[in-house]
């Protein structure tokens, strides 16, 4: 009997994340009993992954797929560039799929790079002293009447009330390549800082406003306060809110800065003036032309990184490699300018090994990527 009869819908629900716990358990048992089931799932999953973003998804004929798998399963297949076996490749893909479907909260992640002083998250105190966060856990500092606590990859600031002193002290959290970190500010606003980013903020908010300065990328879930607007300043734009969730990407080495609104409303200020954003809208400021653009977007590619997933939706390879370079602390070299404009769509866990991600890019774009000595050459 064909073990894949009548399970096409189940596999697709599994991939979409809508399968019940019982259905997920049923599939896992099937994978455990039948090695060839894994091959069919892999083929289905890869087709789904590509079609989800390119609108080229076509319904798979499970019977034909099964016969094709039986023919090919005994043949050795190796990737030309990375020389990975299909078994190893599939094991990684299954891990990626399970990550999406278990509906668990993703922890703060660290890429697979060596632990050196240069890639440690650092806290700069108001005195100028730098502290390696990894070496301090629990309640370890008190500045401006604010208790600073570092625990479970979360840096928290707690005050007993509004600080009444005249002097405002500032801290700076520096997140290097290959890392991300979470911080709860003194007003309970939550911020997730992406790789190669820094946030400067007061240890206690005073007066009639709440202001922080961002370099790089951060996701903000601002605590509502009608009396004190919250402002995020970058070198080129300024975002003002009362209480909402949004993502700000303001890297100096990218051609544009972006504000993507998840919920609520925000005002974005630039040299072009004031612009209001509504949910699912994105404000883009081009650093070269100084032009702005406001448009409706699918927010997932711009916010999924906060849950440990990298999502690309028709993204130019140049932008894809910029994000990968920061997370994996790797250099990318394009052998021609045309390659930078090739579009890539895909999604995978941020903790995945870089060679596997490069193999997915190679498969779906037909470009070649050669990884050697922490440098990827694209041709």
UniProtKB/TrEMBL annotation:
Keywords: Membrane, Transmembrane, Transmembrane helix
Membrane-crossing residue ranges in chain numbering: 80-101
Name under which the protein is recorded: DUF4974 domain-containing protein
Residues annotated as domain FecR protein: 176-266
A molecular function GO annotation: sigma factor antagonist activity
InterPro entries, sorted: FecR (IPR006860), FecR_C (IPR032508), Ferrdict_sens_TM (IPR012373)
UniProt KW Transmembrane keyword: yes
Pfam family, one: FecR_C
Residue ranges of every copy of the Protein FecR C-terminal domain listed in the record: 310-378
Species per Swiss-Prot/TrEMBL record: Candidatus Odoribacter faecigallinarum
């Amino acid at each position: 009997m064909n073990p894949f009869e009548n399970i096409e819908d189940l596999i697709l629900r599994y991939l979409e994340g809508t399968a019940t716990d019982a259905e997920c358990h049923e599939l896992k048992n099937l994978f455990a009993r039948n090695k060839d089931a894994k091959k069919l799932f892999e083929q289905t999953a890869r087709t789904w992954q590509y079609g989800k973003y390119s609108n080229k998804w076509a319904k798979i004929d499970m019977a034909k797929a099964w016969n094709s798998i039986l023919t090919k399963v005994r043949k050795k297949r190796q990737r030309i560039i990375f020389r990975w076996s299909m078994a190893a490749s599939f094991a990684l893909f299954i891990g990626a799929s399970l990550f999406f479907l278990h509906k668990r909260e993703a922890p703060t992640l660290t890429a697979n790079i060596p632990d050196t002083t240069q890639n440690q998250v650092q806290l700069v105190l108001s005195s100028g002293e730098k502290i390696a966060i990894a070496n301090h856990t629990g309640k370890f500092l008190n500045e401006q009447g604010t208790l600073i606590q570092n625990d479970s990859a979360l840096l928290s600031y707690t005050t007993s009330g509004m600080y009444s002193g005249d002097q405002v002290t500032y801290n700076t959290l520096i997140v290097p390549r290959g890392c991300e970190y979470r911080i709860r500010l003194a007003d309970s606003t939550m911020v997730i800082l992406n790789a190669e980013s820094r946030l400067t903020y007061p240890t206690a908010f005073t007066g009639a406003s709440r202001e922080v300065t961002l370099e790089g990328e951060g996701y903000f879930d601002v605590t509502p306060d009608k009396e004190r607007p919250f402002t995020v300043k970058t070198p080129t734009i300024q975002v003002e809110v009362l209480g909402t969730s949004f993502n700000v990407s303001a890297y100096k080495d990218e051609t544009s800065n972006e504000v993507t609104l998840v919920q609520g409303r925000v005002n974005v200020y630039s040299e072009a003036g004031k612009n209001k954003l509504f949910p699912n809208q994105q404000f883009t400021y081009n650093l070269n032309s100084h032009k702005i653009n406001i448009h409706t977007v699918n927010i997932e590619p711009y916010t999924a990184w906060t849950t440990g997933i990298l999502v690309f939706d028709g993204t130019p390879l140049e932008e894809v490699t910029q994000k990968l370079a920061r997370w994996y602390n790797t250099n990318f070299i394009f052998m021609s300018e045309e390659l930078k404009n090739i579009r890539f769509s895909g999604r995978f866990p941020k903790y995945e090994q870089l060679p596997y991600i490069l193999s997915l890019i190679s498969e779906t774009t037909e470009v070649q990527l050669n990884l050697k000595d922490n440098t990827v050459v694209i041709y």
